[in-house]
Amino acid sequence: MKPKILVARAIFPDIIERLAQYFDVERNDTDTVYSPDELRARLADKAGAITTASERIDAAVLAGAPHLRVVANMAVGYNNFDIDAMTAAGVMATNTPDVLNETTADFGWALLMATARRVTESERWLREGHWDKWAYDMFLGADVHGSTLGIIGMGRIGQAIARRAMGFNMRVVYHNRSRLDAMTEAACKASYVDKDTLLRTADHVILVLPYSAATHHTIGAAELATMKPTATLINLARGGIVDDVALAAALTNRQIAAAGLDVFEGEPKVHLDLLKVSNIVLTPHIASASAATRRGMASLAADNLIAALGFGAAAGKPPCLLNPAARKS
Fold first, then answer.
1. Helix axis angle, 13-20 relative to 291-308, nearest 10°?
2. Residue 297, SS3?
3. What are the residue numbers of the active site?
4. How many whole angstroms separate alpha carbon 198 and alpha carbon 67?
5. Each residue of 221-250: pLDDT tens digit?
6. A cellular component term (GO) from this record (predicted)?
């Protein structure tokens, strides 16, 4: 008999067909987001699962899944995983890094440009029928070229964003948990500074750091007060890194010029105060949403699952294993 697996959200049909060569696949064609109780029930007889950020894998879920050996996240972030609980249960955790770096960096720039130049705000105004003449001060925004870009979180995506800044003749400063080596800094033409200096000096601040208890509300009221009143803030990382309530207040009071958000606290719900302000660009967690990249993520998640359950050329060695100790238990 084939091992049973769950594909917790809808994915590309050909990826399902590939998985079906090895597994008895339970698929979620309706793309319903399962409640914790339903997820636990569906995992009860499964050896593996492919999940997204919407499925929380914790001790309570694991307690009801005694046969589970691997959960493959179709995302680079894995704050939906309780890694300690998974390791203790002997459940391998994997993610899909690198395949989305360049696409996400592209979108970071799209969000930055739209925010700085008030693209969506002016489009809404035009669609509402307000445009009847040209005016010298109509939707004045901020220059991107020649400005200072501050990147908080200088992993592979942050570095890809920094490399793109060279074409705009920008000064790039960054803050990270640990400083990059000199060769990488030179390749990115980026200078390390402390967080306070970055917030005080950057014209545009972009967040690309992973979410954890330590990074919760990395940007809150105090940090927003430190930024320039002409600055923009872009969150490309995870909801919860920014205090959305504090951000809404800062935008309402014009404490900073504008913000662009692809992620939110409690998403897919968006705080009502953010929906009320005009100086913000809002997108529904689509930074990795190119056809090629999302397909690459799904394929890598499948690679991880297939290998973890003992099939394929990499049998027993999933390429993106987050908790090697689970494999040994």
1. 10
2. helix
3. 238, 267, 285
4. 48
5. 999 999 999 999 999 999 999 999 999 999
6. cytosol
